[in-house]
Amino acid sequence: MPACGGAIIAPLWVITAAHCFLRFKDASSWIVMAGKHDLDNSNESFQQLVGVSKIVSHQGYSMRTKEFDVALLKLREPLQYNQYVRPIEIWMRPLHPPMRCSITGWGSTRENGPRVNLLQEVNVTLMPLDNCTHFYKGRIQPSMLCAGESEGGVDACQGDSGGPLSCYTGERYQLGGLVSWGVGCGRVHKPGVYTKLQDHADWIANAMTRVLSCGKAETPPCRLGSLPATLSDVGGEVRAGGVTEACPYSWPWQVSLQSEGRHYCSGTLINRRWVLAAHHCNAKMGDMVVLGVHDLRFMASQSVPVDEVFEQAQDSSFPPNNDLSLIRLGEPARSGDSVFPVCLPDDDIEVDDSWTCVTTGWGQTKTLEKVSPHSLHQARVSLVNLTACRSIWGEDLIKDTHLCTHPAAAVSCMGDAGAPLVCQKHGLYFLFGVVTWGSRHCDLIKPAVFTSIADVRLWIKDTTEDV
Ligand code: ARG
User: What pLDDT digit, counting tens, does each position of 381-399 carry?
Assistant: First the structure.
């Protein structure tokens, strides 16, 4: 049942009203429908339905005063922008009554009326706050906007909450407010009351950066083949196709783990203080984490000592089920163009063919004749499903905690012992795996095996929060 409206402000973010989440606080019980017109038609061509991974309600929201009625929904997957799904910016210039704006929603079309299936729109006039205060006897705060007609008749109503009050700049629409409350709908001298978003611009920006500053590269990945890497047999020797030198600093979360100046593994920066690495890399306190480096022979933008290494509880299985370590940095990484963390996928997000995956690392094997071992290299890789992977490696070797890809990504082909598998959707990169054990010789048919990140979200969260 449509509960509330909202507006897209970024690929992963929808803004809406805080009061929508008083009853259902659990992110997983919500779904965002974008690109919709007719809610009754479940196969509209441009619809995008995505789950919600996080609800960030304004901590100041008060049921009594209805102030700070704003919340952000972080989506589980980024929206794809097109003609029907696009973001709106927040209106930051003064909003002068009697300016006219539009409201849209699937709420009731009259007081106590039913909700509707087709998106409705109506124009409303912004009202001076004094008039509104008069109509609502002191219940109007400066961070609210009132709009409607003083004689009533046009208004939002139940079910429209959180939806956009869109105002035209002369060039484009910007978001002036969100449907928040009113007495009845469309009554005389009872205009609709909206959350004035420009007053919350800092809260919005901060909430978004707190939760999401990951997965974007300042230098976009380049020289990346348009097809996944391949392996072929050239006169008895295996050769890789589609592995290329990365453009410098285009994978800003990639770090080099070094001991006594020697690179021994890759790691992945997941936030300013933490690197995720393969446990088998055996990182130790005092080793160096080298960030923002392309060619290992040259200066890096930062080197930070390993402060402490954390591993998951191990059982006695061999090969180990969980081949991951978390490395705490001696000092926080300075994010910038060449140093930036990757995003972690929300739990139970599965990589499928709608994502493009890439593995990156240093090192050399015979397979990579033309690639410099000192420069970071990259390869697009295709995924292999667990069933197919098990049929080659054997039932007991491949656990549900693994992720398999085309053999080209294996350590013995790519040369890197702890290479990350990052997958991208709509330009945002998420870490899905860290390379683990595999075939000793770059093998044409044996898939590369990664430890999957999705199931260890909780461990990562607990470890990186606690200490
Ligand atoms: N709180 C309502 C909702 O949950 C929206 C009320 C807007 N009312 C109005 N008269 N403008 O949908």
Answer: 999 999 999 999 999 999 9
Q: Which residues contact 421 (CB under 8 A, 6 or more apart)?
A: 357, 358, 359, 381, 403, 405, 409, 431, 432, 433, 434, 435, 450
pLDDT in tens, 435-467: 998 899 999 999 999 999 988 988 998 999 865
Q: Ligand 1: does its nearest atom lie under 6 Å from the Cβ of 192? A: yes
Ligand 1 pocket, residue 107 CB under 6 Å: yes
- In ligand 1, the atom with minimum distance to the C-alpha of 160 is 12
CB-based contacts of 370, cutoff 8 Å, min separation 6: none
Secondary structure of 195-211 in the HEC alphabet?
EEHHHHHHHHHHHHHHH
In this predicted model, what pLDDT tens digit does every residue of 12-59 receive, in sequence order? 999 999 999 999 999 999 999 999 999 999 999 999 999 998 899 998
pLDDT (tens digit per residue) in 124-173: 999 999 999 999 998 999 999 999 998 999 999 999 999 999 999 999 99
Q: E strands along 157-315, which residues?
A: 164-168, 173-181, 192-196, 230-234, 237-241, 243-245, 254-259, 262-271, 274-278, 288-291, 302-311
DSSP bridge partners of 174: 89, 167
Q: What does the pLDDT average to over 416-421?
A: 94
Q: SS3 of 278, please?
A: strand
CA distance 117 to 106: 6
Bridge partners for 267 per DSSP = 255, 277
DSSP calls for 90-139: EP-S---TT-EEEEEESS-SSTTPPP-SB-EEEEEEEE-HHHHHHHTTT-
Q: Give 203 Cα–ligand 1 centroid separation in angstroms.
A: 23
Task: Tell me, using a 6 A CB cutoff, whether residue 181 lines ligand 1.
Answer: yes
pTM exceeding the 0.70 threshold for the entire prediction: no
